[in-house]
Design brief:
The complex is a heterodimer of chains A (521) and B (138). Chain A has 521 residues and is mostly helical. Chain A has 20 helices and 4 strands. Helices cover 22% and strands 43% of the residues of chain B. Chain B has 1 helix and 8 strands, in the order H-E-E-E-E-E-E-E-E. By secondary structure, chain B is an alpha+beta fold. Classes of the chains: A mainly alpha (521), B alpha+beta (138). Chains A and B meet through helix 2, helix 3, helix 17 and helix 18 of A and helix 1, strand 7 and strand 8 of B.
């Protein structure tokens, strides 16, 4: 049974990572996030440096290997087995601390995000542009451009979060964050309250307001340390922030917009928030009111984000297969185009806008007719579209795991090469290292992820059809019938995904990448 | 708060140290630049290489006067332009007249960069990269 808040009821025995002896103790430590961000920040610095000044060949550069291979492979793995761990350790948020200082001293505090921008539309547009730019300029093949993208990210996060209050960059802008929110909708862990009754009795609501250490008198913090006795003559300046994405814990449901920053955990004076296990996809079955978000069924921007990220998972892989390259080259030649670039743009317009709109609208139209006669297409779409999340994420996992499993070990020789160049390594660079698994295992692994995603999608569509209001009252059959068009769409996308995965891949980059400084070409 | 200040200061210092150490990466890159007196050319047979088919690489080394350079150690490295792909390597055999030959088998279709590195008997080095597109073999 799913409660109104979308949380499984009666889950007294659920796993709670924050209660584990080592991991839990570490995560309950106030500076856990900083401890995770610091090494990633250093890694990002190294990647930036190597991207700008190192060898400009993608397989030999920390920027490209780190970003397009290691990060993408590990982030989907983390989302699959845990949750939004990358956002928890996000290095782009570290310079924000300096931004806050600037904001306090020179900008008289942060500015609220304009109401017109308090949605995902900007993030949807930026994410679509990012996917296009990635293909158009072959970012995977260019350490230099990859470094510029990362540098731009740091700058954008710094500027947005210095000017605006809260975590505006995470919530309304960051394409990486939107991808992580999307994937975390099917993750097995969620930050949520342990006992709602404790929150009901809480008068201070520190989880969202934040608190000063010692504010509640000489009592232990959840971690049992870092507390100084409360002194009225010397008020503590230390503040533990509350949730900056406006997710009020008692009313929070699910992982959308949750960066796993753990501010709420550290701020809660009652130690009533955990990192709790749940059934993957279960948060998509219901449509509760979610703090800081509202109801999914009333958020057209969220529906658009889901559609974009689902179809982008197919287009991203589609653009790497040989039949597509061959077709584009021939069309470009036939049309007398100087390059296939206009056709790439056409692919994106068709694949990310026209085709998704048509397919989703068609499924929504059929669904609306099969359910309540008076349901609009928009209402049907905004109810069922979230069933696509597991399938879209499954396709992303299949694709990114292919690259990671094909070349995940190349990080070893790249690091050896870097250390050798700086005089810290004198042994042979093992350029022969690459695949993590035998080549024959790749397609079966990819297929498993895709099938799991499709199965999850079918389950979500079915569960949505059973939701109160999904069919005519007391008529369960009409509810299931309304899900049928979505079953068909899911199976069509599954077939398309399998076809894409069996096609030969062409690892192409723009040939003019060779000839940039440092390539020697 | 104090802990955070110390941690962030330490982080900034470590980043600076890493950047300074990384300067060695730039130095190493500069050291690999080739002598302008040596011309390196490459011919690939067949002209349209494909996977699952061995290609013969014919390298030519010439001095500034166009004269052949013999006695060099010539290596060939093929790298795809996509991160995560392992390179293919070969050492070329001298064929006389400033020519050297090597054989490579391409592991995947797509864009490659072939880097020819030559170390002459007198210690001078030469390096040149050549872009290449490999098709799908049958």
């Amino acid at each position: 049974m799913i409660t109104e808040r979308g949380q499984p009821a009666g889950k007294a025995g659920a796993v709670d990572i924050l209660r584990w002896p080592l991991a839990g103790r570490f995560l309950r430590w106030r500076h856990a996030r900083l401890a995770l961000q610091a090494p990633l920040f250093l890694l990002a610095g190294l990647m930036l440096f190597d991207g700008f000044f190192g060898p400009q060949l993608a397989p030999k550069n920390l920027a490209t290997v780190g970003a397009w291979l290691q990060y993408r492979g590990l982030v989907v793995l983390a989302l699959l087995i845990a949750g939004n761990l990358f956002c928890m350790a996000c290095p782009f948020m570290l310079p924000r601390r300096l931004g806050r200082l600037i904001r306090r001293r020179f900008l008289a505090g942060g500015h609220p995000v304009p109401r017109a921008l308090r949605n995902k539309w900007l993030a949807v547009a930026l994410t679509a542009v990012f996917f296009y730019v990635y293909e158009r300029y072959s970012l995977w093949a260019s350490p230099w451009l990859t470094a510029w993208v990362a540098a731009g990210y740091f700058l954008a996060a710094f500027l947005v979060d210095t000017w605006f209050e809260g975590a505006a960059f995470c919530k309304y802008v960051c394409p990486l964050g939107q991808f992580n929110f999307f994937g975390s909708l099917v993750s097995p862990l969620e930050i949520r309250v342990r006992a709602p009754s404790v929150c009901a009795a809480c008068a201070t609501k520190d989880c969202i307001r934040g608190r000063r250490v010692g504010e509640h008198g000489p009592q232990a913090s959840p971690a049992g340390h870092e507390v100084r006795p409360y002194d009225e003559t010397r008020p503590e300046k230390v503040t533990i922030p509350g949730c900056e994405l406006w997710l009020f814990q008692p009313a929070k449901a699910g992982n959308m917009d949750c960066t796993f920053c753990l501010d709420c955990v550290h701020a809660c004076p009652h130690d009533n928030i955990g990192l709790i296990g749940r059934l993957p996809t279960a948060e998509l079955w219901g449509d509760p009111f979610r703090s800081g978000i509202g109801r999914f069924s009333r958020r057209a921007d969220l529906a658009a984000l889901v559609v974009l990220l689902t179809f982008a998972s197919f287009i991203n892989a589609f653009n790497m297969i040989r039949p597509v390259y061959t077709l584009r080259d021939r069309l470009a030649a036939a049309l007398g185009l100087p390059s296939p670039a206009p056709l790439l743009l056409l692919t994106f317009v068709l694949g990310l806008i026209v085709l998704p709109a048509l397919l989703v609208a068609l499924a929504g139209w059929a669904s609306a007719r099969l359910a309540q006669p008076h349901e609009t297409i928009a209402a049907a779409v905004q109810r069922y579209v979230y069933a696509l999340v597991p399938l879209g994420f499954g396709m992303w996992v299949a694709h990114y795991s292919f690259h990671f499993l094909t070349g995940g070990l190349t990080i070893v020789p790249v690091v050896q090469s870097f250390l050798a160049d700086v005089g810290l390594y004198g042994g042979p660079v093992q350029w022969g290292l690459g695949p993590v698994v035998p080549g024959a295992w790749l397609f079966p692994i990819e297929a498993v992820f895709l099938y799991l995603g499709a199965t999850g999608a079918l389950i979500v569509a079915f569960q949505i059809s059973q939701r109160p209001g999904a069919g005519a009252p007391g008529n369960q059959g009409r509810g299931i019938a309304a899900a049928l068009p979505w079953f068909v769409l899911i199976l069509l996308l599954l077939a398309a995904g399998l076809w894409i995965l069996v096609q030969p891949m062409d690892m192409r980059g723009t040939m003019q990448m060779i000839g940039l400084p440092g390539t020697g070409g | 708060m104090k802990f955070q200040r110390h941690a962030l200061t330490g982080l900034a210092l470590m980043l600076l140290l890493l950047f300074l150490a990384g300067c060695g990466r730039i130095q190493a890159a500069r050291a690999n630049q080739s002598s302008a007196d040596i011309a390196v050319d490459l011919q690939i047979i067949p002209e349209a290489p494909a996977t699952q088919q061995a290609s013969t690489l014919q390298i030519s080394l010439r001095d500034r006067n166009g004269g052949p350079i013999d006695g060099a150690t010539v290596t060939v490295e093929g790298d795809m332009t996509h991160a995560g792909m392992t390179p293919v390597l070969a050492t070329a055999r001298p064929a006389g007249g400033g020519r050297y030959t090597a054989a490579l088998t391409w592991t995947m279709a797509g864009d490659w960069q072939i880097t020819v590195k030559a170390t002459l008997a007198d210690g001078r080095t030469a390096q040149r990269a050549f872009p290449l597109r490999v098709g799908e073999g049958h």
